Amino acid sequence: MVNRKNLAHTSSEPGKTRQINFYNIDNKFYFVDLPGYGFSKMSKEEQDKVGSFIEEYLFNRENISLIIFLIDIRHSPTNNDKLMYDYIIRSNKPFIMIANKVDKIPVTKIQDTMKTLQKEINPMMDIKTFPFSSEKKIYSKPVWNIINNFLEEEK
Fold first, then answer.
1. pLDDT tens-digit profile of 1-18?
2. Which of 7, 59, 79, 81 is most deeply buried (CB count within 10 A of its CB)?
3. What HEC string does the chain produce?
4. How many Å apart are CA 103 and CA 124, to the nearest integer?
């Protein structure tokens, strides 16, 4: 999202992150990367532990300006995606959803896939959801407009 290769270490296996990572963006704000655990090989006990600390962070951290909920556009939301959505809703903090990896599906299917995804995870369709590709840098302008609006409000 920030056009910096190798800013975050990634693994070929999702769900390897076990801690919260803070990324200082031009001394203006932080992106905070919480662990994902939907596709990981964590035990149920580890998933519960990570889920608890994510929930604690979301509910108790007061200086969260905006939560960005990343979801893979290629798959139907998993139970863990729905659980994360529930954590975010219950946190009462502003958030948007980003359907990432749109470069992995045909352009002609993006809008229909976005609608289906939105209906599955947010049936009221009241949460802003944006397509995004960090790899091809497409659809980024609307997302950055929202982020910048929240940053301006915080000043």
1. 776 666 666 555 555 566
2. 81
3. CCCCCCCCCCCCCCCCCCCCEEEEECCCEEEEECCCCCCCCCCHHHHHHHHHHHHHHHHHCCCCCCEEEEEECCCCCCHHHHHHHHHHHHHCCCEEEEEECHHHCCHHHHHHHHHHHHHHHCCCCCCCEEECECCCCECHHHHHHHHHHHHHHHC
4. 27
Residue labelled with tokens 């070929």: 12
User: Which residue has tokens 């954590």?
Assistant: 87
151: Cβ contacts below 8 Å, ≥ 6 apart: 28, 29, 65
In the chain, the domains with their CATH numbers are: 60-154 (3.40.50.300)
Q: What is the pTM of this model?
A: 0.84
Could you tell me which residues come within 8 angstroms of residue 91 by beta carbon, excluding any fewer than 6 positions away? 58, 59, 64, 67
Burial class (CB in 10 A: 0-12, 13-18, 19+), 80: middle
